[in-house]
Write a structure and sequence with these properties.
It is a single chain. This protein has three domains: 167 residues, Rossmann fold (3-Layer(aba) Sandwich), CATH 3.40.50.620; 54 residues, SH3 type barrels (Roll); 77 residues, Elongation Factor Tu (Ef-tu), domain 3, CATH 2.40.30. 24% of the residues lie in helices and 29% in strands. The protein is built from seven helices and 17 strands. The radius of gyration is 22 Å and the shape is globular.
């Protein structure tokens, strides 16, 4: 706990952020709970098969807000809900829709962290007199006086490592954020929740993205565009094999993602996977699983954490998906504000629109968006 400081805790209604609030409140400092209201989960109900009642397990649900409020009352700390629905739609939902319609596969959780959660929470915290925010993310940050930079590091519980989603944090945000769970494991956090009398100590972790029921992206896109009075763009085109052979036609590139196997609409004696999506020519290329392997990627919209910028080649490990084991690569500047990584060993299904996060040991060097 920072001495003589007010800390605003980002309370999502889950066991992690609730335990953070309990830990800080026990230390005797001034603690305030904040919850961001991001998405009305009943908004698209009934459109294109989206259920009327939101399914349990979705992030940031109304039940989560109730749970967060009950925890704040139990701990005796002030609690506020901050409505950020308009900005969430502008900076997360609309870009998500645009990326998917363009044949890329975006990560809304990273967009939300970069543009909403940390940015808006810090603004709100300062408006109520708090100097720092604390979150339930599993990550570590510390100041390195030699480099004069705040460093983001992987946590003790590698199974819960959330640094992949935090690569966009700025030096200003890292300087004013606390990650109290960074040196704890999930079982230890649940144990602490029980010790503090939190009734949600056994609450399961949320698994679904808050605005996408059941993880069905295509159904969400159809319902959202219908609500907006918009149509799916005309992106039908050819479905071809990697040797150029025409296999058929598809109804739109938004139905595909690199690495996809099911729903290709073509019969084959051996499994086929999406290898490439051409957003200009609307051509989808499919092939064998082995053809998904590549040794290179390029990334743009980069954010650097442990270094001020990339000026010379650097040995790093690169993570291309949340559950991907970081792989050794050589990272180098590629011009136009981009970076290129060449892997020591081929990696499967490098997907445009996803994040590439670069690690030096436990440190997050930085990251960007795969193109």
């Amino acid at each position: 706990m920072i001495q003589n400081a007010t800390i605003a805790v980002a309370m999502s209604g889950g066991v992690d952020s609730s335990t953070v609030a309990a830990i800080l409140a026990e230390q005797g400092g001034s603690v305030v709970g904040l919850t961001l209201q991001l998405w009305d989960q009943t908004r698209l109900a009934g459109r294109h098969g989206i259920p009327d009642a939101p399914k349990a397990g979705r992030c940031c649900s109304l039940d989560d807000v109730y749970d967060a409020r009950r925890v704040a009352e139990h701990l005796g700390i002030p609690y506020y809900v901050v409505n950020q629905e308009d900005r969430f739609e502008r900076d997360v939902v609309r870009p998500f829709v645009s990326e998917y319609l363009a044949g890329r596969t975006p990560i809304p959780c990273s967009l939300c962290n970069n543009h909403i959660k940390f940015d808006q929470l810090l603004r709100t915290a300062r408006s109520i007199g708090a100097s720092h925010i604390a979150t339930g993310h599993y990550a570590l940050n510390e100041y390195d006086p030699v480099r004069g930079r705040w460093i983001l590091k992987r946590p003790a519980d590698r199974a819960k490592d959330q640094t992949y989603f935090l690569f966009g944090l700025t030096q200003e945000q890292l300087a004013h954020t606390l990650f109290p769970l960074g040196r704890l494991t999930k079982p230890e956090v649940r144990s602490l929740a029980r010790q503090h009398g939190l009734r949600l100590a056994e609450k399961p972790d949320s698994q679904e993205i808050c605005f996408i029921p059941g993880g069905d992206y295509k159904r969400f896109l159809a319902a959202y565009l219908d609500e907006q009075g918009e149509q799916f763009p005309e992106t039908a085109g050819e479905l071809v094999a990697s040797n150029g052979e025409l296999l058929g036609r598809h109804g739109g590139i938004f139905s595909f993602t690199v690495g996809q196997r099911k729903g290709l609409g073509v019969a084959s004696p051996s499994p086929l996977y999406v290898l490439n999506i051409d957003p200009v020519g609307h051509r989808v290329t499919v092939g064998a699983d082995a053809e998904l392997a590549t040794r290179t990627l390029r990334a743009r919209r980069l954010n650097w954490i442990s270094i001020p910028e990339l000026t010379t080649p650097m040995r790093v490990r690169v993570k291309i998906r949340h559950r991907h084991e970081p792989a050794w690569a050589t990272l180098e500047p590629a011009g136009n504000g981009e970076a290129a990584a060449t892997f020591d060993e081929p990696q499967r299904a490098v997907t445009p629109g996803q994040s590439a996060v670069f690690y030096d040991g436990d440190e997050v060097v930085g990251g960007g968006w795969i193109i």
